[in-house]
Amino acid sequence: MTTDLLAPFKLNNTIELKNRVLMAPLTRCMADDNLVPTQDMVEYYARRAETGLIISEATIIRPDAQGYPNTPGLFTSEQIQGWKKVTDAVHANGGKMFAQLWHVGRVAHPHFFDGDVLAPSAIGVEGSVPRMRELTYITPKAATIDDIKGLVADYAKAAENAIEAGFDGVEIHGANGYLIDQFLHYAANTRSDEYGQTPENMSRFALEVTDAVIAAVGNERTALRVTPGAYFNMSEDSRDKAVFDYLLPELEKRDLAYLHGGIFDDSTTFESLEGKTTSEFLRAGYKGTLVGVGSYSFESAKEAINDAKFDLIAIGRPLIANPDYISKIANGEELVPYSDEMLAELK
Ligand code: FNR
Ligand code: 8K6
Asked: CDD domains given for it (predicted)?
């Protein structure tokens, strides 16, 4: 029997999705200057409510989480009210939506806020801020234990704010070389305390954040995105696999809504993961609901789900090009191809 990706999928006792196609989180840098979602964003997300679950663009949990211009936040009442308009519109169109909770760690830039750039260790990234190339990255401050406690508490607070803003749950952004991922990789974490050096210690921050968010909003409303293979703002280290070998069974015990592998092309293999792709590695180590992503078409996703490679598919760029992706697939209509110029406007 083949799985129908357009048929409902029960995520858990709290959440049922109307189909298995998720909208991947997509940063658009279109919030207003107070990092509040705009009316254009309300309409942009509402148009995509036919997907089983929309995952919001990465949304910062506090001011020093910011590394790009006009990324939305979830830490002021104005931002919460702005998101409420988005979630109301998505719900009115029959959709569901999770907020992706973000702190960029060492990829933050003090241009956007007052204070330190925090990271696990004082190791900077090369390069400069996309779209603001004159802003080069600085060497971050290694977070103190008090800093870490504050960060964990602020992820939980942002999760509570997300529920207040009407989201159906949250996806913690633990991927793509940002703060949580920085703790999980040797290239960014050289700490000598209980947050560094061993797989258990390097997983501690990710698990503390996950547990704090679960305590705030419940495990059935908590999801996590991870990138075991380093590919963005991070370099590979052969020891990284051991960290994820420890982390994945720990996550499985938490009975999350889902685990999501964040990657641009899921055919990319990683030496540090013994030649596996992201979804192959995650599937081998994690038995809960897994979301695949990364250059899939509807057809290739269907094949992968039928082969039990993962359970749900997240679609990114094709949903930028085709707000009506689900209807087009259902009706056998041709999709508009994605191009980078489409990022200039919210359609
Ligand atoms: C992304 N991606 C991304 N990932 C994430 O976890 N949070 C984010 O905010 C963003 N932002 C973002 C912006 C843009 C413009 C692109 C193209 C990508 C990665 C995205 O969720 C997804 O993993 C990739 O786009 C691969 O999926 P597709 O596009 O091949 O279906
Ligand atoms: C100002 C826009 C900021 C967007 C930040 C989120 C991520 C955007 C995508 C950038 C592309 C990264 C490409 C990595 C490719 C690796 C291929 C193996």
From this structure: OYE_like_FMN (cd02933)
pTM, rounded to two decimals: 0.97
What is the reported pLDDT for 279? Answer: 98
Q: How remote is the CA of residue 314 from the centroid of ligand 1, in Å? A: 10
The answer, yes or no, to whether residue 1 has pLDDT greater than 80, is no
Q: Say yes or no to pLDDT of 228 above 90.
A: yes
Write the pLDDT tens digit of every residue in 56-110. 999 999 999 999 999 999 999 999 999 999 999 999 999 999 999 999 999 999 9
Q: Which among 22, 23, 26 is the best mutation to test ligand 1's pocket, defined by most ligand atoms within 8 Å of the CB?
A: 26
| Three-class SS state of 65 | helix
Residue 127 · residue 177 · CB < 8 Å:
no
Q: Is 137 a catalytic residue?
A: no
Q: Which residues pair with 98 in a beta bridge?
A: 55, 169
Q: Is 26 in the pocket of ligand 1 (CB under 6 A)?
A: yes
How far from the centroid of its chain's Cα atoms is residue 123's Cα? 23
Catalytic residue among 44, 45, 178, 186: 178
Q: What is the reported pLDDT for 2?
A: 85
* pLDDT cut 70: percent of the chain above it: 100
> What's the chain's average pLDDT?
97
**Pocket mutation for ligand 1, best pick of 22, 27, 54, 310 (most atoms within 8 Å of C-beta):** 27
Average pLDDT in the 218-235 region? 95
Q: Is 3 helix (H, G, I), strand (E, B) or coil?
A: coil
- C-alpha–C-alpha distance, residues 18 and 248, integer Å: 27
CA of 144 to the centre of ligand 1 (A): 31
Q: Which residues contact 303 (CB under 8 A, 6 or more apart)?
A: none
User: Distance from the CA of 229 to the center of ligand 2, in angstroms?
Assistant: 15
C-alpha dihedral sign at 275, 276, 278, 282: negative
User: Which residues pair with residue 60 across a beta bridge?
Assistant: 73, 102
Nearest to 310 by CA among 275, 272, 262: 262
Pocket lining: 176 vs ligand 1, CB cutoff 6 Å: yes
State the complex-level ipTM. 0.95
